């Protein structure tokens, strides 16, 4: 930015100006300075995103562009209250408070030059310079300093050194005495201070009640936010509204709960948490409820947080949530959709439950139709049962057949050996489902106490249970049962049983009796009775399969005697037994 | 907590919500003329009648996690949260914040 100290007094064209005054240009320059004045005012009143201010800046930019069609630069000279393009006045202001001419003039600027490019690259900077100049205090920087700092490339100025010796100072005009200038400065300072107060505290509070209304009073853009700011505000508001304050409140409660110095407060918070749990669950907030249980368990395990009484109070909460009526409510809530949780969330909650929850959970896991939910419930049941093995044994005593049979299966799966006597007791339970579950559990558990009881189940009124018992004894290879099985094999009742039962009993006998059963089975397969009559086909076929279960050459020899039997069913089963020899 | 007319709001509230829940469940399964529905509605009517008779109205309001009967907060416990939750969800599904019964209904 070339600047120079002016050698000639203002009031006429500067030296070296080679343009000729054009009427069109004068009108355009006048219009430009009117717009510049308005823009400058808007610049002081509104922030940068205000549409009014933007509109004026755009208009000023347009007028500069229009002017460059007639001029390659714009040089204006300045006196106290006016600006001149050559001899033609292009700007004048009666009030020095608003006067652009006086703004330049008072700091010694006597000529300014605008060059093409200002409107595109430096217009905002230029207006910023004017705004800063307007707010300068007498004892601070002056306009020349601000211009020098800004170093504008498309705006030049010439000035006079007001204090230089021998320089003719401009004559003071009317209203230019020291006191008057001080009054102007004071008024300007007051105006600036008022604007700042208004922007900081709200104009309505600071200003005295106006007697009349102005157009600006109804201007919604005065303090309007732009679209981006509105979006940001809206997003922040929504974030705040959607924020899970429950988590924050809980965290605050837990923070206080960790302070072991105030036992009464700990008790009070534990009571609050106990109250909150059903509230959370009623709204389906399973995650929040889980976080409470999780935190309680953590605090219980952390040394020095709770004393014995607080530990009991905390455990009482977990006991209450594990109580059958609470679990029944939970199951109901899951069924009717009050609680909608993923399997992981549900599993996370259930893992905190205690032995008391086993019975209702077990019942639900046995009856629920939803496969996924059933899997989660079963997993939860196993998790709780793993930590409460004695609770499983207790469940075997339950009157509810669904719970008892579920507990029997659970005891088998979990290899709870101490459940043996209870399982044996269940083998004579009134409910066939329970008896069957007990038989199946006996196989899994491999407990001798149950195997002994299984013998008695061989004459159970239910066919399915008799079959299961025979298979169970075979699987357990419970040799003491050989005598009982031999009695059944040789008895009459088995002859009226269906094929499946015959096969189950005969095979069990073969497995258990081994060589001791050869004679009986050989006789049943190959023997002839009175008048050469053989045993019925089903008995012979079952005997063949039983012989197939006995290892060794004697059993094989007995089978081979019947390989060419006339009865195709017997022949087929003999061959099958020979192929399966030694296999389970 | 007892009201001025001797109402035990906690107890009455629990019973009222349970009756509401029962009636809603019955209505889901059977038509309104069904005996089960009629019994549930009669029970609900009797409960509401008693509250209206004492307080001059019965308003059940759900605010966040909390339930109010005539501005008394009902304390949930672990044996009834599913019933309460189901009632709250029924209201929420229909954008209803409160149910108010006035004398004469």
Structural summary, described in words:
The complex is a heterodimer of chains A (584) and B (105). With 584 residues, chain A is mainly α. Among the domains of chain A are: 169 residues, no CATH class; 108 residues, Leucine-rich Repeat Variant. Helix content of chain A is 62%, strand content 5%. Chain A has 29 helices and six strands. Chain A has a six-stranded mixed β-sheet with strand order 1-6-5-2-3-4. The longest helix of chain A is centred in the first third of the chain and has 24 residues. Chain A is elongated, with a radius of gyration of 52 Å. About 3% of the residues of chain A have low confidence. Chain B is an alpha+beta fold and 105 residues long. Chain B has one domain. Chain B contains three helices and four strands. Chain B has a four-stranded antiparallel β-sheet with strand order 3-2-1-4. Chain B is globular. Classes of the chains: A mainly alpha (584), B alpha+beta (105). At the A-B interface, helix 10 and helix 13 of A face helix 3 of B.
Please give the structural blueprint:
The complex is a heterodimer of chains A (584) and B (105).
Chain A: E1 3-5, H1 23-45, H2 51-67, E2 74-78, E3 82-85, E4 88-92, H3 100-105, E5 109-114, H4 118-135, H5 143-150, E6 155-159, H6 178-201, H7 203-206, H8 227-242, H9 245-257, H10 263-282, H11 286-301, H12 308-321, H13 324-336, H14 343-350, H15 358-367, H16 371-387, H17 389-395, H18 401-413, H19 420-426, H20 432-445, H21 448-457, H22 463-476, H23 482-490, H24 493-496, H25 499-513, H26 518-526, H27 537-548, H28 553-560, H29 568-579
Parallel strand pairs in A: 1-6
Antiparallel strand pairs in A: 2-3, 2-5, 3-4, 5-6
Helix pairs in contact in A: 1-2, 1-4, 2-4, 4-5, 9-10, 10-11, 10-12, 11-12, 11-14, 13-15, 14-16, 15-16, 15-18, 17-18, 18-20, 19-20, 19-21, 20-22, 21-22, 22-25, 23-25, 25-27, 26-27, 26-28, 27-29
Chain B: H1 9-29, H2 35-55, E1 58-63, E2 66-69, E3 72-74, H3 81-93, E4 98-101
Antiparallel strand pairs in B: 1-2, 1-4, 2-3
Helix pairs in contact in B: 1-2, 1-3
């Amino acid at each position: 930015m070339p600047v120079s100290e002016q050698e000639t007094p203002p009031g006429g064209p500067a030296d070296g100006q080679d343009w000729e005054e054009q009427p069109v240009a004068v009108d355009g320059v006048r219009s430009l300075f009117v717009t510049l004045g308005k823009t400058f005012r808007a610049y002081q009143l509104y922030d940068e995103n205000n549409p009014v201010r933007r509109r004026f800046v755009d208009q000023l930019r347009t007028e500069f562009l229009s002017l460059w069609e007639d001029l390659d630069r714009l040089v204006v000279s300045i006196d106290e209250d006016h600006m001149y393009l050559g001899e033609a006045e292009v700007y004048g202001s009666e009030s020095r408070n608003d006067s652009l001419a006086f703004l330049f003039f008072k700091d010694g600027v006597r000529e300014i030059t605008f060059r093409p490019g200002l409107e595109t690259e430096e217009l905002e900077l230029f207006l910023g310079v004017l705004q800063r100049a307007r707010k300068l205090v007498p004892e601070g920087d002056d306009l020349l300093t601000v211009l020098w700092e800004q170093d504008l490339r498309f705006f030049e100025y010439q000035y006079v050194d007001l204090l230089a010796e021998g320089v003719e100072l401009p004559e003071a005009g009317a209203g230019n005495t020291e006191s008057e200038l001080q009054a102007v400065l004071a008024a300007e300072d007051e105006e600036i201070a008022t604007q700042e107060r208004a922007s900081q505290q709200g104009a309505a509070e600071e200003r005295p009640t106006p007697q009349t209304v102005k157009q600006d009073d109804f201007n919604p853009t005065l303090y309007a936010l732009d679209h981006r700011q509105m979006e940001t505000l809206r997003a922040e508001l929504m974030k705040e509204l959607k924020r899970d304050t429950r988590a924050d409140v809980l965290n605050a409660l837990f923070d206080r709960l960790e302070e072991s110095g105030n036992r009464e407060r700990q008790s009070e918070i534990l009571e609050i948490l106990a109250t909150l749990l059903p509230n959370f669950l009623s709204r389906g907030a399973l995650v929040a409820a889980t976080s409470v249980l999780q935190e309680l368990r953590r605090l219980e395990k952390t040394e020095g947080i709770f004393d014995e009484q607080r530990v009991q109070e905390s455990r009482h909460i977990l006991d209450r949530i594990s109580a059958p009526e609470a679990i029944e409510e939970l199951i109901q809530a899951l069924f009717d959709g009050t609680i909608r949780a993923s399997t992981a969330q549900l599993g996370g909650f259930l893992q905190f439950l205690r032995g008391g929850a086993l019975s209702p959970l077990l019942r639900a896991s046995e009856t629920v139709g939803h496969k996924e939910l059933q899997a989660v419930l079963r997993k939860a049941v196993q998790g709780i049962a793993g930590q409460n093995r004695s609770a499983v044994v207790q469940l075997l005593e339950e009157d509810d057949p669904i719970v008892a049979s579920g507990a029997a299966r659970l005891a088998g799966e979990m290899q709870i050996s101490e459940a043996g006597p209870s399982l044996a007791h269940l083998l004579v339970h009134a409910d066939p489902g329970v008896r069957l579950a007990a038989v199946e559990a006996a196989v899994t558990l491999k407990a001798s106490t149950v195997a002994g009881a299984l013998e008695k189940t061989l004459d159970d009124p239910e066919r399915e249970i008799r079959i299961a018992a025979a298979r169970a004894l075979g699987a357990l290879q419970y040799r003491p049962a050989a005598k009982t099985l031999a009695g059944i094999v040789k008895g009459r009742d088995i002859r009226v049983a269906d094929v499946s039962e015959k096969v189950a009993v005969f095979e069990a006998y073969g497995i258990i009796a081994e060589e001791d059963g050869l004679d009986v089975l050989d006789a049943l397969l190959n023997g002839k009775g009175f008048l050469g009559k053989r045993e019925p086909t089903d008995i012979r076929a079952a005997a063949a399969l039983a012989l197939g279960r006995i290892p060794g050459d004697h059993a094989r020899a007995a089978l081979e005697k019947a390989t060419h039997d006339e009865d195709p069913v017997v022949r087929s089963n003999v061959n099958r037994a020979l192929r399966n020899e030694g296999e389970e | 907590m007892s009201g001025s007319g001797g109402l035990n709001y906690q107890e009455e509230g629990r019973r009222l919500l349970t009756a509401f829940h029962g009636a809603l469940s019955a209505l889901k399964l059977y038509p309104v003329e069904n005996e089960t529905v009629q019994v549930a509605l009669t029970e609900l009517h009797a409960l509401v009648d008693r509250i209206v008779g004492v307080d001059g109205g019965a308003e059940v309001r759900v605010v966040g996690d909390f339930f109010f009967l005539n501005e008394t907060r009902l304390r949930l416990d672990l044996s009834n949260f599913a019933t309460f939750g189901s009632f709250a969800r029924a209201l929420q599904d229909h954008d209803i914040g409160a149910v108010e019964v006035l004398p004469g209904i």
